[in-house]
What does this fold into?
Amino acid sequence: MIKQASSFGRNGVQDYVFTRATAVIIVLYVLWIVGFMLFKSDGSFIQWKSFFESNFNKVFTIITLISILIHAWIGLWQVFTDYVKNTLLRAILQFFVVTILLIYVIYGFFILWGA
It folds into this structure.
């Protein structure tokens, strides 16, 4: 019987697909921001503020933040399972990484949609 090494029933193919899909989203977001900086922005605070007041940019930013969370989690999970052999230490590290990543996304929501 083959036992899956990853949690939640994931497998290597799903990790591969998620990693590549999130990388594409991140690259598209970087190109979007660089394009804005090169062609639309004079660098003023007012232009940046109006750029991020658009619902499209807010949603695109949140999708990118979530993609970064998924991308980072898969990468760090693989590093932890490959190099941290102590199960308790690995669980503690994974808990802290998940906590920090969730705080990043919550903070991103607060910045974009907050008062």
Remarks:
- The mean pLDDT is 90.
- The two ends are 54 Å apart (CA to CA).
- The CA atoms of residues 14 and 20 lie 10 Å apart.
- The chain has one domain: 10-113.
